[in-house]
Write a structure and sequence with these properties.
single chain, archaeoglobus fulgidus dsm 4304 fold, 7-stranded mixed β-sheet, about 35% helix
Length: about 180
Amino acid sequence: MKKWRFLGIDDSFDDKKCCIVGCVTCDGYVEGFMYTEIEIDGLDATEKLIAMVKKSKFRKQIKCIFLPGITFGGFNLVDIQQVYGETKIPVVVVMRRKPNIEEFDSAMRNVENYDTRKRIVEKAGEIHKAGNLYIQTAGLSFDEAEELVKAATVKGNMPEPVRIAHLVASAIIHGESRGKA
């Protein structure tokens, strides 16, 4: 049986810098990392993420991209449909809590380009409950996404590549890993 490789992506930031770390795993084993930087509250997360994936030596082997949400570096939103469209790799957004869309929308009004950001949120699609998580998908069905989440999870609820990407990104910015993905 062919083994699946998963890419988990997470960020960490302070007032000066936002780093994006990608972690590639196969059977829970770390095979490699990717790195890029984005603007805090900018609009470059989608393009930077796509470029990071496209130039990776792992690109053709990745079965799925996992994100812990669509916001990175504050309100720098990732258009998951565009990521799927340009990489042809399915995307699954995996969240521990269902976002309060009204609060999110209200906060999003405090940064520039509200209409652009609102469209990205709408394009991300419906949020589904999957066990103890909430997920959104691009390029695959909810059932397929749920199967991939289970396959990528070693311990707990979060897919292992997202958990590891979170630890590395927070260590880059804060000097040591912090919090949960």
